[in-house]
Structures are given as C-alpha cells and as structure tokens.
Amino acid sequence: MGTRYRTLISSFPKAKTETAISQDRHVDVLATTENISTALLFLLPLLALAIISIANCFTGISTVSPLEQRSTTPFPSTSDISSYPSAFTSFYTDHFAYRSEIISDLSFLRFFAFQLPARPDKVLVGKSDWLYFFDGGDIETVRHFPLLTEPEIRNWAKCLQDRTDWLNKHNIKFLFVLAPSKCTIYPEFIPEKYNALNKTSRADQLCQYLKAYTNVNFIDLRKTMSENKKIAEVNEQLLYFKTDSHWNEYGACLAYGAITDSLNKVFPNLQRLEAKDINLEKEANYHGDLIGPMGFELHIEDHYRPVSLKGANWSLSNDPAPPEKVGKQFADFATTYPDAKLPTAFVIRDSFTTALQPFLSHSFRRAYFHWRGNFDFPIETIEKEKPDIVIMEMVERQLARSVPPNPPEISN
Question: Which region holds residue 115: left if phi is over 0, alpha if psi is between -120 and 50, else beta?
Fold first, then answer.
C-alpha cells in the first residue's frame, strides 16, 4: 500500500514537469513565430524597395527629382576600379525606389515646420507667396554686398571695351544690355533680414564706370522696369513671375521697347513693334522654375496675362539646325524675318532672352542667338554671321560671377 502511494505521488511531479516542458515549447514556438513575423514586416518592405530600385536601374529615368533638377548618375565604368564603389553608390541612390516622393514629403515637413525650402541655397521664400532665386549671385544682388573691388570693375569694363573695339574694327555695332534681377524690381516682398547693406549696388558701380571711362554702348534696364512697374500695377499686371526667377512676357515686351528705342538711333529702318501689334491674352496660370527647389508641389501659382504677337512672321532658320525646343539651354539657333531692309543681329544671351526672343526676331532680318553659361565671345561664328550688331544681354546677378572670357585675339 505504501509502495502504491509512493509510486502515485512520485508520478505527480513528473507529469507536471512534462506539462511545463510542453508549455515552454509552445511559448518558444509562439515567440519564434512572432520573431519571424516581425522580421518579415521589416524585411519584406525593404525587399520590395530593393526590387523596385533594381528595376529602376534598367529604366530610362532622365531626371532625379524636381528638387535636384539634374540628370541621373549614369552606370559607372569598370575601367577605374578604385572609384567604382562610390560611383555605383551614386548610381543606385539616384535610382532608389520612391526617391522623389520621399524627398517631397520630407521637404513638405521642413517647410511647414520651419518655413524653409528644401534648398535654401537656391530659393528664398518671401512675403505674399513670392519666391526669389538665391543662387549664382542674387544674394549679393539683394544685399548689395560685397561690392565690386576696383580691379573687378576695371576687369568687367575691359571685357566689354575689348569687345567693342574688336567689333568696331569689323564695322559691327555693339550693345550691352543689363537685365535687372527680380529682387531689384520687387524688393518689397523680401524678408527684412535681407535688407541691402549698401545704397550702391554692383550694377551701379559698373554702369557708372562704363559711362565715365569707356565708350561701351550699353543700356541699363533697371530704370525702365522700375518706372513701368508702377504703371503695370495700376493695370494689375506684374513684370516678373512670383514663382519664377525671370520676367514674364509683359516685362520682356517692355524691355524690348527700351532696347529698340536705343537701337533706333543707330538703325533708323529698324522695325519696332507697337501696341497695335501685340495681344494681351486671357489670364493664365504658371508654375515657375522656383517651385522645384521647394522640394514639393507648392500649391501657389502665377496668374498673369500672356503677351503674344499679332501675325508674327519670323521663322526658325535651318542654319544652324534648330533645337527641339526653342530657347533650350545652351542651344544656338537663328531666326529670319522677310524684310531685306532690316539689320541683322548676333545675340549673346542668357535665360532672360527666352521671353525676349520673339520680339527681337520681329525686328531683324536674321538674328542668331548664342547661349553659353560664361557669356563667351565666339569670334569665328560672329565672323561667319557678319551681323550689323552684336547684342549682349546679361542678367544683373552675373556681376557676382566671373568676368566673361575673351579670346586672345581681342584682349589688349
């Protein structure tokens, strides 16, 4: 009897131990399942992103994002093994899945949390939804600081005087056109912390020197645009886009009027557009080039009335072969107008000529438009064209950059 009870009693702990072991095993299985599920929750999205990113590497994506405004990094060459890892990293990063969307969302949070654009080095957010270009010289233009040094003023003047002298020897006229930056004409929407530090600007310095010490023929459009700004405001018109760094067609039309006023003194037969030749179209909406550097789709736009020409007869020339899009950056093209009495022109330009070109093409029998970032002076092309005048249009902010290069043949 005692043996039976001892056997029965001794079996209880054993049964309990087996049950506990079974429960522990069940808990371990649950824990393992949870761990696997948790790992899959993290790994599957990463795997999906990796698959999409790899797929993107084989697609023809041409631009990275509206924010960066550049082409994608090409697949690296294996010829240089030392630089291959970093080059491939750049290539893969550019093709990473949902790159633009991620950048856009982060930029949105940055703007509404701190009122900062994604690229504060590119764009300044002003008052009343005005955006300003803040790269490549416009910060110096806004602040009037630093000013040009005496050697810098002389170098700028020498560049323009040497071009004038060389063209005079070839019986070609020269006109330097200084286009004002947007911040010069509409400074009232710039935050107070960016107020000008000097009354004199770089443009003031150069124009005063050119007038006093050279015979360079030039026109400073700052006065023209400032005076017409007041007239435009009465008619609820702007001369520049709020969301773009450039003047609009209305502003370009006024600039054209000032340029042809100056040219008419040299070319009495110059055909000039008048008010009856121009249409003011119905109000349109426009998203400018400063929206991209904000990093997300900012829901502001320009409401303006485009300007068009009535019965414009100018056409693109096939020499040189025209680009796919007229006004494409750094692509030369020429236009012709069917009037043998009109002069010919060679225009050294920047992006401000894009809106100006349709008006200028109406006034020249042939106009060749040359665009390089450094405002070079291509004497071989000029000699081939044999224009009656060379017009150099340059935006004000360029004065904070390097002086344009001149060929050795014309540098004295």
Answer: left
**pLDDT tens, 311-349?**
778 999 999 998 887 766 788 999 999 999 999 999 999
Cis geometry, peptide bond prior to residue 320 (ω within 30 degrees of 0): yes
104, 296 contact by CB (below 8 A): yes
Backbone φ and ψ for 73, nearest 5 degrees, come out as -70, 125
CA distance 112 to 218: 44
pLDDT digits (tens, 9 = 90+) for 269-284: 898 888 778 877 777 7
Closest-CA residue to 69 (of 20, 123, 112, 26): 123
Q: Check: CB of residue 133 under 8 Å from CB of residue 292.
A: no
**Tokens at residue 313, please?**
């007869």
Q: What sign for the dihedral angle of Cα 31, 33, 39, 45?
A: negative
Q: Phi, psi (5° rounding) for residue 75?
A: -60, 130
SS3 348: strand
**Which position has the token pair 């690229």?**
119
Q: Nearest Cα to 240, choosing from 123, 339, 355?
A: 355
Q: Which two tokens stand for residue 133?
A: 């270009």
Whether the full predicted model's pTM is greater than 0.85, yes or no, is no
Q: Which residue carries 């414009």 as its tokens?
A: 312
